[in-house]
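JOB MANIFEST
job_type = single_chain_structure
chain_count = 1
residues = 153
[input]
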Amino acid sequence: MPVTYFMRYGIRGGGGVQHSGSPQPWYWNTPGLQVVMPSSPADAKGLLRTALFKSQDPTIFFAHERLMNLRGPVPDGEYEIPLGKAEVKREGRDVTIIATGVQVPRALAAADALAKDGISAEVVDPRTLEPLDKATLIASVKNRPRRNHRREP
């Protein structure tokens, strides 16, 4: 059934427990539902247009409260992002950080902090939990150098 539910979530400060949760796991574990979690204004537009105009399945569209005032570039026109298509938000060679929603800007900040210590972190945003772009996530992790983490006695 082509229906899209728009839900705000996340800690807002001063809200009761029932208003500050992150219920996306409940929906992610429900067969037949698509789960969308944008992290930028452009992603919000592109994913929402796809869910509204292209999808034939029920979609839960999560918008984190702390991202509602985020400003950024948004493409003009009929801009759409396919569901199930992750985006590499920052290229890196040493480690992979996978983050969704409000955690993406935080992951990018963490990558900046790691860069000061000479660690190159790639940040990957799945953008949708269902469908999940496992191929992009696995490819990012596979591209990391292998290190022996055994401690010497």
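[summary]
Residues 86 and 126 are 4 Å apart (CA to CA).
The chain has a mean pLDDT of 88.
exit_status = 0
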